[in-house]
Amino acid sequence: MTTRPALVLTDIEGTTSAIAFVKDTLFPFAEAELDAFLAARGAEPEVAAILAEVPGPDRAATLRGWMAADAKVTALKSLQGLIWAAGFADGRLRGHLWPDVAPCLRAWHAAGVALAVYSSGSVGAQKLLFGHSEAGDLLPLFSGFFDTRVGGKREAASYAAIAAQTGQDPARILFLSDVAEELDAAEASGLMTCQLIRLQDGTVASGRHQRAADFPGVARLFQLPLAA
């Protein structure tokens, strides 16, 4: 029998939210606003500290190159998060969630299951998405947020570090992602895993992990409550 997790650790893109939202909404918004943002706020300490991590004489060009390559670079993700903050604050952006996600998150939290996020997007960006989601402010449901500062998502050590920081036994943590290689790394550190197969995003099952089409499917597999 599958053990009920004490903590559910979830990815975002392709898992709670459409890949298209990130690629077709968030990324273009950050690129379009980059120059104006750097001109207006480049001298602020927080922004300047991020820019100090960007190599080359033309930092904007380096950032655009990273954007074009969808590079998982912490400095880029942090800067994108700050740019997106302005869009969420004035209502131009709202965080997309699949309709099944928020009801299940609320039910799991109400049942005493801890919730955390691990995404390549910065912690700031994660909080913006869940704090300004189409389902309302979901931040109170989560006890932890993790990004690439804890390590790469395809590195087993990252999941061991998350387990240590949350104080949870890895065997009681369930990691949800659409990417098999991330799930492989989590499993190597002793976590339970489940691959989300969102057909709208064209996700293909790996065959190496338990899989579910949506969050209610996850609930049924791992003895978690279903949304009312």
Quick tags:
228 residues; alpha/beta; 2 domains; 11% strand; globular
Summarize the structure in words:
This protein has 228 residues and is an alpha/beta fold. The chain has two domains: 7-17 and 95-221, Rossmann fold (3-Layer(aba) Sandwich); 21-89, Transcription Termination Factor Rho, Rna-binding Domain, Chain A, Domain 1. Helices cover 45% and strands 11% of the residues. It is built from nine helices and six strands, in the order βαααααβαβαβαββα. Strands 3-2-1-4-5-6 form a six-stranded parallel β-sheet, with helices on both faces. Strand 4 (173-177), helix 8 (180-188) and strand 5 (192-196) form a beta-alpha-beta unit. Helix 4 runs parallel beside helix 6 (123-131). The longest helix has 23 residues, at 19-41. The model has no long low-confidence stretch (mean pLDDT 93).
Secondary structure topology:
Layout: E1 7-10, H1 19-41, H2 45-51, H3 59-69, H4 74-89, H5 101-110, E2 114-118, H6 123-131, E3 144-146, H7 156-166, E4 173-177, H8 180-188, E5 192-196, E6 210-212, H9 215-221
Parallel strand pairs: 1-2, 1-4, 2-3, 4-5, 5-6
Helix pairs in contact: 1-4, 4-6, 7-8
Q: What is the CATH topology assignment of the largest domain?
A: Rossmann fold
Side by side, the strands of the main sheet go: 3-2-1-4-5-6
Number of helical regions = 9
* Residues in helix, %: 40-55%
| Structural class computed from helices and strand pairing | alpha/beta
What would you call the shape?
globular
**Domains, number:** 2
Q: How do the SSEs run, as a string of H and E?
A: EHHHHHEHEHEHEEH
CATH superfamily assignment of the largest domain?
HAD superfamily/HAD-like
Would you tell me the overall average pLDDT?
93
CATH level 1 name of the largest domain: Alpha Beta
Biggest sheet features:
6 strands, parallel
